[in-house]
Amino acid sequence: MTRNGRWRLRVRTDFSAAHQLRHYQGKCEALHGHNFSVEAEVAGDQLDAKVGYLMDFKDLKNRLNQVVDTLDHTCLNDLPGFSTCNPTSEELARYIFEALDALLQDSPVRLCWTMVAEKDSSMAFYERCDHASQDDCRRGIS
């Protein structure tokens, strides 16, 4: 039997942090906090031969939590990654993507995107921008 399908996994976690937006005119210029939700999606085309999974959900979530734990209960503006840019949801999604991508280099999956939401109706995504990588993630190729 030939299988042409690919697999994708998605995990979610949360963290709480404060931030303020420099050079913004409005309420968000003042220090305030959010309960952020974070999602990450990976793709791959090879299941583990013994267990039959792409990657252990627990392992993927642990790696995501390694990144998120550095943000939890902080003032994001005080972190080195946000000294020259505002800790917007967009920048947080990029920051988490880059940190998680580095933690997944030894795994059988490829990180497709990360998402950060300040609330259920407001979210930002960061994804690979090179054409080949986007195609890989759409098809699920690691």
From TrEMBL:
Top-level enzyme category:
lyase
Does Zinc appear among the keywords? yes
Give the record's cofactor note, including how many are bound.
Binds 1 zinc ion per subunit.
| GO BP | tRNA queuosine(34) biosynthetic process
* GO molecular-function terms, A-Z: 6-carboxytetrahydropterin synthase activity; metal ion binding
* Enzyme Commission code: 4.-.-.-
Organism per entry: Desulfoplanes formicivorans
Record's catalysed reaction(s): 7,8-dihydroneopterin 3'-triphosphate + H2O = 6-carboxy-5,6,7,8-tetrahydropterin + triphosphate + acetaldehyde + 2 H(+)
Query: In which family does this protein belong, per the annotation?
Result: Belongs to the PTPS family. QueD subfamily.
List the keywords (alphabetical). Answer: Lyase, Metal-binding, Queuosine biosynthesis, Zinc
Its pathway is: Purine metabolism; 7-cyano-7-deazaguanine biosynthesis
InterPro entries noted in UniProt: 6-PTP_synth/QueD, 6-PTP_synth/QueD_sf
Q: What is this protein called?
A: 6-carboxy-5,6,7,8-tetrahydropterin synthase
Query: What residues form the catalytic site here?
Result: C28 (proton acceptor), H73 (charge relay system), E118 (charge relay system)
Cofactor(s) needed for function: Zn(2+)
A Pfam family assignment = PTPS
Q: Does the keyword DNA-binding apply?
A: no
- Positions bound to Zn(2+): H19, H32, H34
Coiled-coil spans in chain:
none
